UniProtKB/TrEMBL annotation:
Protein name as catalogued: Nicotinamide-nucleotide adenylyltransferase
GO MF, any single term: nicotinamide-nucleotide adenylyltransferase activity
Lineage summary: Archaea, Thermoproteota, Thermoprotei, Sulfolobales, Sulfolobaceae
Compartment list: Cytoplasm
InterPro entries membership: NMN_Atrans_arc (IPR006418), Rossmann-like_a/b/a_fold (IPR014729)
Length: 117
């Protein structure tokens, strides 16, 4: 979904790495752990205060992106709209919407929130 959304925005995917990094639940070595999974980097973008502190203490430059409308662009809110069968398509990139619909993610979500009564 992320790659498709970036591609739709015209971003050169040859310059993008999407790397899943398992959590180790050890803040003191988190920055080093991340660096073992990624190519060299000099800047970290984060809004999370703990992430900011960890990477600053490890000597990285940290950029804090501007806030966004978290009440509107919120995964819990979007899932609620999907479950209630309300319009949510304008809250996600088209590639994300298409992927969820193609894989019946909306239907699956409605099924798992049902009860067995």
């Amino acid at each position: 979904m992320i790659r498709n959304s970036l591609r739709d925005e015209g971003i050169d995917l040859s310059r993008i790495f999407i790397i899943p990094i398992p959590d180790i639940l050890m803040n003191s070595v988190w920055a080093y752990h991340v660096s073992t999974y990624t190519p060299k980097f000099d800047v970290v973008f984060a809004r999370n205060p703990l992430v900011i502190r960890i990477f600053k203490e490890a000597g990285y430059k940290v950029e804090v992106p501007p806030p966004f409308n978290r009440e509107k662009y919120n995964s819990t809110y979007i899932r609620r709209l999907i479950i209630l069968n309300e319009n949510w398509s304008e809250l996600v990139p088209k590639a994300v919407y298409d992927f969820i619909i193609k894989n019946k993610g909306d239907q699956r979500l409605r099924e798992i929130v049902g009860t067995d009564k």
